[in-house]
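As a warm-up, study this chain.
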Amino acid sequence: MAARTDMALELEKRISGSAEGIVKSERQYDDAGLKVTEIEVTNEAGAAALGRPVGRYITAACSSGRLSDSIELAAARAEVIASELRGLMPLPERVLIGGLGNTQITPDSLGPAVASGVFATRHLKHLAADLDTSELSEVTVISAGVMAQTGLESRSLIGAICREVEPQLVIAIDALACSELSHLGSTVQLSTGGISPGSGVENARVELSERTLGVPCIAIGIPTVTDCSVIAEAAGGSELPEHLGMIVTPKDIDSLIARSAAIISLALNRALHPTLSREDIELIMG
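Now compare it with the structure written out below.
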């Protein structure tokens, strides 16, 4: 049985032969040490073959190592992700950023970690009449938590905030699961197909998508966990009994989350406020 995954790139590899409604392309960013693969699902036949909704799925993968390994390449990688994000769809004036996940479980804390580094401007746009904010997007940022903490589905919480702030786009950030060790902590996936929090570890909640929220939704994630069966297979072992299945994460997950979240936060800030330089953003965010 194939290991669980949230990665469209891995699901596409499982399709034998070509599939109608799936278009794949690649591009290289040597200066950032990233290879970008885009899978576009153009119709329902492609969606059925891939097991993902119609939309665009972009995976930026490190040429070597993990996202968190090279501090020197962090800014360049953030610029690539910002560029790919802007290419997914025109970024509107009002955006809601939702960091999904549990701060008490490190592999699941990517969303809140990213949210903490995003420059929120809605209050400035509405209250700071003496400031010129014309070049800033109106950005609202929340950390949605998990149902065990809030008693609410992430979709319900983000949906309620959507009704209050009326964003033209929702960007949801969450940790993902992968089925290839080479993708663990070394890839970023961006998609317009929405996201089902917890789906990679068989704890799927109500999806966040244009269908459920009423506004376009972009999902951003980094795989931080994999099924133990993937490790066993890589080590040449046999398939684990189902009742012994475990989810595993890298031993340096703390630094992986911190450094990867910083890259994604910078990418979001650069994409949403293109007139601000990296130095400007770092000064503002402290």
